[in-house]
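User: Quick sanity check before I run a bigger batch. Here is a single chain. Can you write out its predicted 3D structure?
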Amino acid sequence: MSEHNSSSASAEEQEQPFLSHLVELRDRLLRALVVVALIFAGLFRYANDLYHMLALPLLMKLPAGSSMIATEVASPFLTPFKLALMASIFLAMPFILYQAWAFIAPGLYKHEKRLAFPLLFSSVILFYVGMAFAYYVVFPLVFSFLVTTAPQGVEVMTDISKYLDFVMKLFFAFGVAFEVPIATILLVLAGITTPADLAAKRSYIIVAAFVVGMLLTPPDVISQTMLALPMWMLFEIGLFFSRMLLRQREEREKESEAEEKAEKARDDELDKAIVEEENLNTTRKD
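Assistant: Done. Predicted structure follows.
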């Protein structure tokens, strides 16, 4: 009977932390949703202005008198609505990632926390930088190329919903591509590979960058190259920082080993002194 009670008590103890984690996860998800909703409530009234800003890189390259079109009945409303919702999620991303960090941080060791937070912060910044690079550098080049290559007699009139899908794909592709340094550092620190191995495989990585650029961007050479080259450069940056962090880790390990040896030597000297004192006391008694 007592064994049954103890087993049921242990099961309840295991269930309580699990339920508390679920409650905490629910609360953090609700906070993230509330922040997204608040940002969306502020952006919705400017949804058309947001879309006009997003469409500027294409509108500036269209021939005089040309414009974008809406081929579906609800597109003039739903497309800016969709953009405002996506923009709200992107703007709330730092808060969303902070909630994720706060949820998993208690289960991390001190050195893991010290490294994880800078990497998390850097990944958010790099994602935004990738989106900004796509908007200010890639879009003007891509749209200029696509508009000028239209056959004679074909008037370029892009549908607003298709344009949104197109640019969001590019935003996501460049945002993810700019995470290459973080991925490189994590692979090295996790022990999956080493900077020397990555440097030896540089030629394969460059080819892989162009393949990824081909798969994630439209079928034009400009956008593919504009994605592949930054990925290569960012890989080199990640390789540099991974070497630096690995060197710092090795120095800390050496310092820790030296401290352990010094502490062991002090303990040995103390034990030796105690033994000598005991022997001296024994001799005096004799």
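The radius of gyration is 29 Å.

User: Great, the batch can go ahead then.
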